[in-house]
Amino acid sequence: MAAFVKRYGSLFGMLAIVVVFWIALPDTFMTARNLLNISQQVAMLTVVAVTMTLVMVTGDFDLSVGSMASLAAVVAAVLFTRDWPLGAALAVALAAGVAGGIANGFLVAVLGILPFVATLATLTMFSGAAFVFSGGKTIFGRDIPQALSDFARAGLPLGTAGDKPLLLPALTLVALGMTALVWLLLEQTTYGRRLYAIGGNAEAARMAGVRVRLLRLSAFAVTGFGASLAGLMYMARVASANPVQGDGLMLSAIAAVFLGMTVTRDGQPHVLATVAGVLTLGVLDNGLTQLQVDSYVRQVLVGAIILAAVSSSAIGRKALRLR
Amino acid sequence: MPHLRVTDLEKSFGAARALDRAALDLRGGEVHALMGENGAGKSTLIRILAGLEQADAGRVTLDDVPLRLGSPDAARAAGFRFLHQELHVIPALGVAENMHLSHPYPLRFGLVDWPALRAAAAKALGRLGAGHIDPSAPMGELGAGDQMLVRIAATLLPEPATRATTPAPWAYVFDEPTASLTGDEAARLFAAIARLKADGAGILYVSHRMDEVMALADRITVLRDGAHVATRNRAVTSRDEIIHDMTGRAMADLFPPHVRHADEPVLTVRDLSAPGLSGVGFDLARGEILGLAGLSGAGRGAVLRALIGDLPRRGHLNLDGTDLADTPAGAWAQGVAYVPRERRSQGVMLARALGETIALPHLARLSTRFGLLRHRAQAALVRHLAHEVRLKASGPAQPVAELSGGNQQKVLFARALAGQPRVLLLDEPTRGVDVGAKFDIYALIRRMAESGTGVIVASSDLVELIGLCTRVAVMDRGRIAAILPTEGLTEAALLTACYGKEG
Predict the structure, then answer these.
(1) Domain residue ranges of chain B, discontinuous segments joined by +
(2) Quick check: B363 and A193 CB within 8 A?
């Protein structure tokens, strides 16, 4: 019984949350429109969390993703104000994310600085850089290309509900694409299996011929890419960029990966489990907002649910039976 | 003298019967070795004594009074103390404070009385003959051997007045204590054990190392498949008899006969220098098993680590006509396989499926051109290799941590076997491995050599080197002092060569 709770407890918990909202909000929660809405709300978080899964598989983590998301959006927006073409500005912003990720990876994997310390430092630096580039101001209105906002509002037609068309949002599609990509990387390529081996025992992996430094560094690079992509998605959605708008992503992304680890059999990060974690956070946010629960109370509840999930499963205690 | 008697002890885990009428008899003033293959029930017996497991049936008496075990506190109250190979110490705290972790600190005006704390520690260390350890030194600066002495000395601290009813500790259980000790450290530990024994303590000594047991023990109890096989007096028994008790097999069977190998070299090493090594040179022939002997620190393991590319190195290393790569990744790709000494920290991924540890160095071969993993090919390879090494496991998905030491080692052998390596590097291949698994591993090494792989074995087990290898290179302070053919070589002669100029 205890083992059953440990293994499936948080999965049932996630389902229970959905059921509770379904009952409490009979007319508005379990509707196609609301679910599609949730999928769009969590699209940015999904991208950050699935790429964060990559570094957490190797046993590292990255605190700088939130400020990297802000920085990428600011970089693109500043370039827009200087009349750069859309594609070039986005490419530079994404490249900045990859470069930031490589910097993190270099500090952690090559210099051997603890990920907590290294990415805490770069978090501060990226955040500072975002303020410097933007002059501390929000960039919005005509400076943000219309094409971006159009993209964020576009989607794949799924049919109609009432008289309005139902769209699978473009941002959701981006998130799905990134999820599929990271899943492929982690579960179906030798690259991913090597990352899991590093997480299992980095020293043993090195002795077995795995290029540990390079792979750890590369995982940070992918995470940096994911963070900057999420920042650009956010900018498209709100049609503005300011130096703090991505900051909230970091804690939620780490929370999502941890929530996901509570449903996996081996207590390790997995992409699809991370997505389950993201959806749990998204559903909570959406449902509690609809129930008009005060946003501060909401924070307390979300934190409590994360603690409940982690403590009911084994991962918080590393209860591994050794002989 | 206290007298602990365990009879008819039974314990099952589900369907698996760990103890089946096990028995043990420990008196104060003796060193009693407990031997048996992995899975023979030694650990279960100790865990029951320690109160970590409950016996299903059986009698435990202390001086003919039934003893109620079942919790660590009860074991402590009975005077038992347990010293495991992996010690729990707090590296940042001083020696004296580490010794007082389960004792109250001496106080003065309600504050810690530091001089008294150090004096108590120094006194206990002195009783153990460990006066060379400074009670105020940080624990982390001590070697593994001294840390163990500190842990033993802690049991000699006087019990506080509040626990006046508790009997003094009298029974010490050592579980593979020398696994991570150097020769000198082990010698100090043996001296400490002798002192404990002279003070009337009973020592239960669990070890796979026959040399130690034969040197140290007064009596030897052997368990096999959870049952008591025999308790023998060391003075009137022999290694052969003990090995026969453990396995039902004689020692001569351990080593298959030598085979002749070709003369054509697969690996030539000239002027190899690395941290701890200088001017090392030798040829390894196809199908040859070359031994590396020497005292601890002489550079046996360093040669292997330099060859696999774990140590920065200089020199001319030639593998089948090409330069040997200088990173582990490159060396594996060229067909060099390596089984490291530190199985847990450098070999396996404990928490992960054993199949992953096996497949790891071979992932490149198990993937398509686009890096996609061929799951079926991986599963087939793992299954084939697990069968090849006679791995006892429930399946490729079983976590390595659940396997016994011998089977963990077989996991590392399985992966070294894959794809017929040209050179196989083995560092202490049978360390912490029971006799049955040893036999399997020796047979495997032989089979690899017969199929043309050049094998280098670094080992501190001289019997193993003589039985297994065709030649043994004796290392002395980072150099090869001599290369001896093993035909007609005795253990004594090899040991003398190891001591070389130092001796």
Answers:
(1) 3-79+167-251, 90-143+153-166, 265-335+421-502
(2) yes
Which amino acid belongs to residue B429?
Answer: P
Q: Comparing B3-79+167-251 with B265-335+421-502, is the CATH topology the same? A: yes
Give the 3-state secondary structure of residue B456. strand
Predicted confidence at residue B87, as pLDDT, reads 65
Residues B68/B45, Cβ–Cβ less than 8 Å: no
Contact A77, A139 (CB under 8 A): yes
Of B329, B351, B363, nearest to A190 by CB-CB distance is B363
Identify the architecture of domain A9-19+27-312 in CATH: Orthogonal Bundle (1.10)
Q: What's the gap in Å between the CA of B337 and the closest CA on chain A? A: 8
- Mutation target vs A (from B52, B305, B349, B375; most A CBs, 10 A cutoff): B349
- Close Cβ partners of A279 (under 8 Å, ≥ 6 residues apart): A14, A38, A42
Phi first, then psi: what are they for A233, rounded to 5°? -60, -40
Q: Which residue does chain B place closest to A191, by CA atoms?
A: B371
Q: pLDDT tens for residues B139-192?
A: 988 888 899 899 889 888 887 766 656 678 899 999 888 877 777 888 889 999
pTM: 0.77
Chain B residues in contact with A196 (beta carbon < 8 A): 352, 356
Does ipTM top 0.90?
no
Which of B332, B349, B357 is the closest to A209 by Cβ?
B332
The CA distance from B462 to the nearest CA of chain A, in Å, is 26
Residues A279 and A43 sit within 8 Å (Cβ to Cβ): no
| Residue ranges of chain A whose CB lies within 8 Å of a chain B CB | 184, 188-194, 196-197, 200-201, 203-211, 266, 320-323
Q: How confident is the model at residue B292 (pLDDT cuts 50, 70, 90)?
A: very high
Question: B3-79+167-251 adopts what CATH topology?
Answer: Rossmann fold (3.40.50)
Reading the block at residue A182, the tokens are 């990271």
pLDDT of residue A319: 40
Token pair 């006969």 is found at B257
pLDDT tens-place string over residues B454-480? 999 999 888 889 889 999 999 988 999
The β-bridge relationship of strands B322-323 and B314-319 is antiparallel
Three-class DSSP category at B117: helix
Burial B444-455 (b: 16+ CB within 10 A, else e): bbbebbeebbbb
Give the integer Cα–Cα distance in Å for A32 and B365.
46
Bridge-based pairing state of the strands B289-294 and B314-319? unpaired
A190 → closest Cβ in B340, B367, B404: B367
Contact B349 A321 (CB under 8 A): no
The yes/no answer on whether domain B265-335+421-502 falls in CATH 1.10.10.10 is no
Structure tokens that stand for B322 in this block = 């090409």
Rounded (10°) angle between helices A146-153 and A170-188: 80
Show the CA angle centred on residue B10, arms to residues B5 and B15, nearest 5°.
Answer: 165
Helix H or strand E encompassing B291 = strand B289-294
Cβ contacts from A onto B, under 8 A: 97
